[in-house]
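Box 4.2: Ligand-aware structure prediction
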Amino acid sequence: MTIELEVKGMTCGHCEKAVKNALEGIAGVTVTEVNRITNTARIEGQNLSLEPLLAAIVEEGYSAALRV
Ligand SMILES: [Cu+2]
C-alpha cells in the first residue's frame, strides 16, 4: 500500500532527511519521496497504520496529516 502524507514545516534538505529517517525508523516502512516544496511524504509498506507515521513526524517538529 502507498500512503501520501502532507508534511508542513520542512524548510531545507535537512528537514527532508529528518522526516525520511523518522519514518524509516518504523518497521516495514519504505519512504519513496519526501519533498519540502510540495509538502509531501510518500510511503510504501504493508499493513501500515497511520498514527505511528504521523507521530514520528510530529516528534521531529513538523506537522503531518493524511493527504486524500
Ligand atoms: Cu531544514
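In the box above, the bound molecule is copper (II) ion. The chain is about 30% helix and 30% strand.
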